Amino acid sequence: MNAAPAPAQLSDRFRHIVIEGPIGVGKSSLARRLAEQLGAELLLEKADDNPFLERFYDDRFGYAFQTQLFFLFQRVKQMQTLSQQGMFSRGVVSDFLFAKDALFARLNLSDEEYRLYAQMYAQVAPSVPEPDLIVWLQATPATLLQRIQQRGIAMEQGIGEDYLQRLCDAYVEHFHSHAGAPVFGVVTERFNPVDNNADFDLLLDKLSTFEGRRGIYDPAA
Fold this sequence. Notes:
Blueprint: H1 8-13, E1 16-20, H2 27-38, E2 41-43, H3 53-58, H4 60-80, E3 92-94, H5 100-108, H6 111-124, E4 133-138, H7 141-151, H8 161-176, E5 183-187, H9 197-208, E6 214-217
Parallel strand pairs: 1-3, 1-4, 2-3, 4-5, 5-6
Helix pairs in contact: 4-5, 4-6, 5-8, 7-8
């Protein structure tokens, strides 16, 4: 998958790029390809390290709080690596936004659990650096479900379309009121920048010329 060289202004303008979106949308795959193209450091979410995650998928209400707390402190630790000397010399591409931790907490925790979580989140969030650009990948719940089934990770196979709809709605709500880094949305229903070189080159071009606070690319529009 060798694409044309990335426009220089992309890596110059955006030293830390975050790829975000709901489960199954292709965050990690695109983050890997973009980091390789830009010669940037790759910072991936370590979901497999969470000892509660598989139990959460089996019993969402019983293990949501433990799962969320593990992710919160894991992500804080990962974000601390961004302050290491030289980390930004090559730029950084990551497949998670720290603020999405609270998004999932609001979605999965009870009101009592969320109040406790929010107190802990408020203590650590101010120390987390804001990225320079968020690329928000989007797809319908039906498409996400199909991709999840195709990749065949056992513990994910119980995820239903109703949960994915709630997750997609939560992302819309989050980014509608987002006041941090610029956000560029990409509709991936018929656009595959991971496996299609032409689509990847087009995405690089769109990102390199993106200005302002909000943007979106939808090939079907």
